């Protein structure tokens, strides 16, 4: 079991931004199109974090042209160039699936206040 843990520790990325469910994040992700490679920014609200160690994933949801789009990223993936937190959300749940039925102003998450 220690060998597996050592391999997992090697694969984990060192600089991870601290974020939580309800935060609005920008994920800078490497996309390969044919023989070209570029960085695409996916910005939205984190609705779920799951797993642990190097298998941890998070799901980001945004509205694009009136359609809800969700994308799941592996947290320690080498394809993630950087992760920027634009807003801190104040939520009381670990899964925000109720945002799927809501649109417009009802789908907003309160911003966390720092006093």
TrEMBL record:
Gene Ontology MF terms: structural constituent of ribosome
Cross-referenced SUPFAM superfamilies: Translation proteins SH3-like domain
Keyword Hydrolase belongs to the record: no
Keywords: Ribonucleoprotein, Ribosomal protein
Organism lineage string: Bacteria, Bacillati, Bacillota, Tissierellia, Tissierellales
Family indicated by similarity: Belongs to the bacterial ribosomal protein bL19 family.
Protein name per UniProt: Large ribosomal subunit protein bL19
GO terms classed as biological process: translation
